[in-house]
Sequence to fold (466 residues):
Amino acid sequence: MTPHDSGPEQPGHPLVREDRRLLVAVSGVLAFVAMLDMNIVNVALADIADGLQVSAATAQWAVLGYQLPVVALLLPVGQWLDGVGTRSAVMLSIVGFGLFSALAAAAPWAAWLIAARLVQGAFGAALFVLMPVLAMRSVRPELRGRAMSVPATLGPLGAVTGPAVGGLLLDHFGWHAVFLVKIPFCLLALAVAWHAMPGDGRLRRPDGRSLADALLVAAGVAALLLALTLASHEPWWLGLVLAAIPPLWWWLRGPGGRPVTGVLRVSGLFRAHGAVLSLGAGFAALHYVVALHLQRDHGVSATTTGLTVLAFPLGMGLAGPLGGRLADRYGARPVAGAGAALTAAGLLLLVPLGEGWAPGEVAWRLALAGVGMGLNGGPTQALVMSAAPVDRLATVGSTVQLARSLGFTLGPALATAVWGLAGPDNGVHAGIALAAAAACLAVPLIAVPGRSRAPVSEQPTDAAHI
Fold:
């Protein structure tokens, strides 16, 4: 382990002689854009349905068409990216993401839009995996906490600001603008990456075994994601969870899944992934419950609700850079644990609030929880990525993103179920308690190291690194 407990330095880890901070900024921009796209389209669904003359259920696939491939392809894409050149992969992913976002904006009918979003989601999965890899490989080991805090903070900020940005664009420019807004960011990131990233290895085609593994993982994760997403409206969708088990089990027992589970046996990675999932679930459940309760049960305006909920990302944005600096100085694990504890404290303080929720009383508690998330994000990412074998960085990046994405999906689904079981009088308190419990669970998972085991591989692959 390093003196700062950010993970073991594996033999073959690329030694960066010159920090490329512009590439860290690129990773942050891509994180913001990719997460923005997870939520920005939600506010435009009614206009999309009217504009393309389709039902609301069909328009919903403008969102699901992106979210499903993003989450379902994370693991296969991560394994593929471990064997290709990083520069080539970054350039291809940015171009594909921006191009199919433009095609979605130009869609004359629903089938075109859904197809464009599906392909855009596949490129989005590559961006999600590449963000932490790009940040980590662009700086010296002693600056990884600060580097990781950039995508770890800007990504969730993109998710929570998506509806507000989408609403503004919708009011002034129409639904096409929610797809076009990302293109300037993509062009900027492409220009910087083109000039700042050194040449490295080329891309390669996935072989037949990799494609078969990708189909198994995608089928299982897609079924799981659909079950969690749609069960809040129709509980019978939970039956899809059963359909997810066979392909995922087959993949885990095969040559594709064994390297992934082996990588996670590296010191502390299983526990850290559990903490990421728990905090993601608590974060998503919190936003779902608070926004719904303020507007539906207390008649608070949408503007006031938005400003109240904005306290969380503000706290997170302010604390994110600080978390990275503290991690580089005092160690990633203690800072990540302290951040998770602050998030849990903020959520626990919401539980005893009475029926008369005042927006100000809610806002400062959300700000405290946001500060905790900001302190936690970068150090946790640095802890996990620094512990990964050099030839499995993209794989570990994909597993972390999958844990976070499943947490974001699981949170609202669990909050809805708990709310329904507790009844209308106690539902909001049950939902907040669930979010707080998830955050509390993350504290020991991230603060207490797991058992140390030998890495799966300590030799670098033929792929060139930054």
